[in-house]
């Protein structure tokens, strides 16, 4: 036997990736009495804690609060000045834990899972090798499951000049140390519009370049229209149907120039490319088990990889719903499935809405976009419902209830409810308007619970709140 090669260490479950998804998988299996190892090459807490959800919302909260305050009589005059950018960035740093993971490592240790810091790679079925930056080498084997929870990364387009131009991705946009005078944002999806909102409010002159004909194209069309109007009023320059053909930044420093397909040129101090995500599976040893490095990993509803009886892909890597809360939800489902299979349960609850089925990924995934105005949606849009073959009716109503008027002078918002006419249940709901994010969980309960319209009629919204929009939607549906 070669004494220089480490002996394999065996666990019931090995988790690759210690973001919110991986943490929750480990927590669930540990709570059921299984042993677990968690491997992470960066920071425990993952993208959400340090470069996405937490720092981005810390940047956005002052912008949205000031916008709301400016619409309240008696307060608006007191909040006309600029934001204190230094204070906002310092607050952001606190919420990103100053990019240190001591607290999250302590929590992970408290679950009883063993933590390995290093690059983890599959090395054949049920085996993971871990190489640390200090030169340590570990070989881990899994009795029951390996869960790949490595998340996703930002994708840069293959454009001339991008490689050496020191452009921003979402990571740089949420962790920047100073406010750029001019910021160009390429992409009209969630990251693009949220970062345009934040940095415009902090003092940047934002130019938003969008290939398509509207912002937030995956949501109902009226959402992008409201957000476009608000960003334009805030001073952002929004250019639709615009393609970037090259990036020029001599020496990788100083101003950056974007060359557009029509020959126009835009100069900025920084440029953010918010143009999509790719799975972080390119360097985790997929080739050793017959899978393609860098690919998304298709799974069943228990998050077990197709064709495998031991490999799970949970969170962004399976491409079902690239949202932190959905990754945590999948982790609870996958964790329960791993435990049940380890215990020899003969028949799992994998039917629709079963304990081992992540049904909400496709039927009831909620999302809030923290722009001004906020956008919030759950379930299917009208186009998605029709494409899926449902016989549906969309019920639309301006958010013009008394609570909205009290919330803000000149409140502008819109709501849509998509109703399945055969079953008379709600398939999807979309809101846009100030403060609507807090309306969304009621919609999620209605969609996931498949609550009949006749029963929703008896769920009385309190007066005077914005939630009275539910009554208006239901009245409009009954009136046909």
TrEMBL record:
GO MF annotation list: dihydrolipoyl dehydrogenase (NADH) activity; flavin adenine dinucleotide binding
Residues the entry annotates as binding FAD: 57, 120, 150-152, 316
Keywords carried by this UniProt record: FAD, Flavoprotein, NAD, Nucleotide-binding
FAD/NAD(P)-binding domain sequence ranges: 11-331
Any single biological process term in GO: 2-oxoglutarate metabolic process
Pfam families to which the protein is assigned, alphabetical: Pyr_redox_2, Pyr_redox_dim
Cofactor note: Binds 1 FAD per subunit.
Family annotation (SUPFAM superfamilies): FAD/NAD(P)-binding domain (SSF51905), FAD/NAD-linked reductases, dimerisation (C-terminal) domain (SSF55424)
InterPro entries recorded: Class-I_Pyr_Nuc-Dis_Oxidored, FAD/NAD-bd_sf, FAD/NAD-binding_dom, FAD/NAD-linked_Rdtase_dimer_sf, Pyr_nuc-diS_OxRdtase, Pyr_nucl-diS_OxRdtase_dimer
Disulfide bonds: 48-53
Cleaved signal peptide residues: none
Annotated residues for binding of NAD(+): 187-194, 276
Obligatory cofactor(s): FAD
Family the entry assigns: Belongs to the class-I pyridine nucleotide-disulfide oxidoreductase family.
Record-given protein name: NAD(P)/FAD-dependent oxidoreductase
């Amino acid at each position: 036997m070669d004494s220089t090669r480490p002996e394999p260490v065996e666990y019931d479950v090995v988790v690759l990736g210690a973001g919110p998804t991986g943490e929750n998988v480990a927590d669930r299996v540990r709570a059921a009495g299984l042993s677990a190892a968690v491997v992470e090459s960066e920071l425990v807490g993952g993208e959400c804690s340090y470069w996405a959800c937490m720092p981005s919302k810390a940047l956005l909260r002052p912008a949205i609060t000031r916008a709301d305050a400016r619409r309240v009589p008696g307060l608006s005059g007191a909040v006309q000045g600029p934001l204190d950018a230094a204070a906002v960035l310092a607050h952001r740093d606190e919420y990103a834990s100053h990019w240190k993971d001591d607290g999250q490592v302590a929590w992970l240790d408290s679950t009883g899972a063993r933590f390995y810091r290093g690059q983890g790679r599959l090395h054949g079925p049920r085996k993971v090798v871990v190489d640390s930056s200090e030169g340590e080498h570990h070989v881990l084997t899994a009795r029951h499951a390996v869960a790949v929870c490595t998340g996703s990364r930002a994708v840069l387009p293959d454009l001339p000049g991008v490689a050496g131009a020191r452009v921003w991705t979402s990571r740089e946009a949420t962790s920047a140390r100073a406010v750029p005078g001019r910021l160009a944002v390429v992409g009209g999806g969630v990251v693009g519009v949220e970062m345009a909102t934040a940095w415009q409010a902090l003092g940047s002159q934002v130019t938003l370049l969008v290939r398509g004909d509207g912002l937030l194209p995956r949501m109902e069309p009226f959402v992008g229209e409201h957000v476009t109007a608000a960003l334009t009023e805030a001073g952002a320059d929004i250019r639709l149907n615009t393609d970037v053909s090259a990036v020029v930044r001599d020496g990788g420093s100083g101003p950056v120039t974007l060359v557009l397909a029509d020959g126009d040129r835009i100069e900025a101090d920084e440029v953010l490319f918010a143009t999509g995500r790719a799975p972080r599976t390119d360097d985790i040893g997929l080739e050793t088990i017959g899978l393609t490095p860098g690919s998304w990993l298709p799974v069943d509803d228990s998050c077990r990889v197709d064709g495998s009886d031991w490999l799970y892909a949970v969170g962004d890597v399976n491409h079902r719903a690239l949202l932190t809360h959905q990754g945590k939800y999948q982790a609870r489902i996958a964790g329960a499935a791993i435990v049940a299979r380890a215990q020899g349960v003969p028949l799992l609850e994998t039917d629709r809405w079963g304990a081992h089925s992540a049904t909400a990924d496709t039927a009831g995934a909620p999302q809030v976009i923290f722009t001004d105005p906020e956008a919030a949606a759950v379930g299917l849009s009208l186009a998605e419902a029709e494409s899926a073959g449902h016989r549906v009716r969309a019920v639309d109503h301006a958010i013009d209830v008394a609570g909205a008027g009290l919330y803000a002078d000149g409140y502008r918002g819109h709501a849509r409810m998509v109703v399945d006419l055969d079953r008379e249940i709600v398939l999807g709901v979309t809101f846009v308007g100030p403060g609507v994010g807090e309306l969304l969980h009621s919609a999620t309960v209605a969609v996931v619970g498949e609550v009949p319209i006749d029963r929703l009629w008896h769920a009385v919204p309190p007066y005077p709140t914005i939630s009275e929009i539910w009554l208006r939607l239901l009245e409009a549906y009954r009136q046909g």
